Amino acid sequence: MKLYAPWEKTFKKIATPFEHFLHAQTTTGIVLMFMTVMALMLANSPFAETYAHFFHTKVDIAIGDWHLEHSIHHWINDGLMAIFFFIIGLEIKREILVGELSNIKVAILPILAAIGGMVVPALIYTGINYGGEGAGGWGIPMATDIAFAISALVLLGNRVSPALVTFLVALAIVDDLGAVIVIALFYTEQIHLLSLGLAGFFFLVMIVLNRVGIHMILPYFIVGLFMWFFMLESGVHATIAGVIAAMAIPSKPKQPPEEFTKETRAQLDEYDTYPVGKAYMLHEKQKAILQNIKDRIDAVGTPASRLEHDLHLPVALIVIPLFALANAGISIDFSSIGETIVTPVSIGIIAGLILGKVLGIAGVAWLAIKLGIAKLPEGSSMSQVFGVAFLGGIGFTMSIFVADLAFAGSDELIFQAKVGILSASLFAGLFGFFWLKYIAKSPSNEALKS
After folding, report:
1. Exposed, middle or buried: residue 387 (CB in 10 Å: 0-12, 13-18, 19+)?
2. Would you list the domain boundaries of the chain?
3. In whole angstroms, how far apart are CA 349 and each of 115, 122, 136, 298, 428?
4. HSE value, Cβ hemisphere, 13 Å, CA-based, for 372
5. Are 389 and 427 in contact (CB under 8 A)?
6. Which neighbouring-strand residues pair with 329?
7. What is the biggest distance separating any 2 CA atoms in the chain, rounded to whole angstroms?
8. What would be the CATH architecture of the domain defined by 2-187+237-252+302-443?
């Protein structure tokens, strides 16, 4: 029961958006782990053929002569995952506007570490696979799975400082932004300019809705749906529409917070002037006041914050678990697993996610600190940053996503990539967790030692 205690407390206090974010990511990590194990069990059970056939079942949406037909696997990866990328877009926007990335002095360390954690793994993978059939998979080890990584840190409790958790969150969000750019620029085979232009048009419509002060969610949803469809038709991966759409969602409140406080206080005072009726029935005027206060709460909030809060749970409990169930199930032949894991693709991913992430994240962070460009997160040590760098080697969700794009049409290379991703993520997660729990020294301990 102690494992869930930190989450239970979240419901007994007023939690900040950042605390809600951590709670959602931790929940996602636990559910993701369960669904990954479930997918592996199904893929290696007597139900393996049924499991594979289900996700290859075609689902057709037709209106008259027009129809859109894709497999369930495709709908999950191109449809539902667009919602996941929409959440990523909202998180990136929040961090840039009001989060850790809004202060360049604080943001410089995770930004530089994230860049190092993307570039070095890509270089290592390319060095191993240069000129080979798997050379196009260089983007696979660049990614960090934010849910798994944050879950590991949260489970460590007070052994890591809040600033170190914030460092990892900022690093992972910059990493996500990098992955989105890589997918958009390098994993698009053919672009249909007309469809891309129409997607751009609908994005501009969303910007106009923002500029004229529309705070209702429905118009953005309808226009965003059209943008997603034309992005899908354009050849650019449709999930990119989710990130772009997030940039158009209003992040400013309709009503200034100071006006909300003053007017709501007056409304509450008026509410108290009416006596409570029989069976605690409210006076009609009280009902009107409560509705008015609710409207004011909606006005002082922002569509971006409401959507981020409301969508985290369905993404955590539906979208990501379905993605894991559809993509993590690989049939493992233990007699040949040794041959698979030493293929250039698997070795490149393993070396990239483990060695590359550590060299890229911890190495660049150490260099930036030594040069005086940045400083360590408060209450943490370089030894702990080293452990966090290992957690950055948990690729999983985004790595599998990129692997499907990089090796589309080659089941063998996708299989090799997934073996590498699962192996590296498992090792990086366990090593990083145990390093931070049992080996990494806090600043006070390092001071005593010196």
Report:
1. buried
2. 2-187+237-252+302-443, 257-297
3. 17, 9, 12, 46, 12
4. 0
5. no
6. none
7. 81
8. Up-down Bundle (1.20)
At 282 the three-state DSSP class reads coil
* Rounded CA separation 245/204 (Å): 10
- Dist. CA 197–CA 187, nearest whole Å: 19
Residue partners of 381: CB distance under 8 A and separation at least 6: 440, 441, 442, 443, 445, 446
| In 34-184, beta strands by DSSP E | 58-63, 66-71
Contact predicate 417/349, CB 8 Å: yes
* Rounded-to-integer distance, Cα 64 and Cα 344, Å: 48
Are β-strands 66-71 and 58-63 bridged in parallel, bridged antiparallel, or unpaired? antiparallel
**Better-predicted residue by pLDDT, 143 or 189:** 143
Residue type present at position 401: F
Q: Taking the mean position of all CA atoms in its chain, how far away is CA 434?
A: 24
pLDDT at 360 over 90: yes
Phi-psi region of 157 (alpha: psi -120 to 50; beta: other; left: phi over 0): left
Q: What is the pLDDT of residue 257?
A: 67
| Rounded CA separation 119/166 (Å) | 22
Residue 144 is classified by DSSP as: -
Residues 301 and 320: their CA atoms lie apart, in Å, by 27
Number of neighbouring beta carbons within 10 Å of residue 85: 26
End-to-end CA distance of the chain: 39
Predicted TM-score (pTM) of this structure: 0.78
The letter for the amino acid at 369 is: I
pLDDT in tens, 108-118: 999 999 999 99
What is the crossing angle of helices 17-43 and 162-186, to 10°?
60
